[in-house]
Structure prediction request, 209 residues.
Amino acid sequence: RANAYGDVGDYDRAVEYYEKSIGMLEGVGDLVELARSYNNLGDIFIRTERYDKALAYFEKQVEISKRTGNVRIGVYAIVNAAEAMARQGGADRLVKAEMYCKEGLSIAERLGEKSMLAFAFGALGFIFTRWREWPAAAEYFERGLEVVKDAIFPYYAADIYFEYGLMSRDSGDPGKAAHLLSEARRIYQDIGSKDGLAKVDALLEELDA
Prediction:
């Protein structure tokens, strides 16, 4: 249920359910499910721009990965932490985020973890957008979209289209930006993401002005 609230943008309700879930899981000692809840709650904090809180939960997730030897848990934490750091901004954080993301990407490729591959490519696209290295950013976004074509990850697909659209606008290609943002809007509408629709509609209106 918490995932569903997060997907439609009801973040307060999602946080409430994740925190309840974490309380129960900490009590029973189910470390793998606990790590997933840490990951999902951290993702909500990224979406609501509470990056320090997000990083704190990803650090807990890494600790569980080390304790259990579960590499998949670790790679999700690494790449999510990279996104949080990149969104905080600043050259030092961007350098560290790029390093984390490429490490996570290498592991995800070895594991064949498509959801994390898509997310890692999208995060690298965002990082290189921050560096204003447009060709590299576009390449990573395109690779992310190729991955999501082969699997059902609608929220990842929408986010990649959205960030790619932003990059295209910032690099001086409003026509491509409008196309990519329209694709993001279509997916956000399909999955019922109110916050996704709100942010993409604001940008499309800006492009039409």
In short: The CA atoms of residues 69 and 92 lie 29 Å apart. The longest helix spans residues 91-111. The chain has a mean pLDDT of 90.
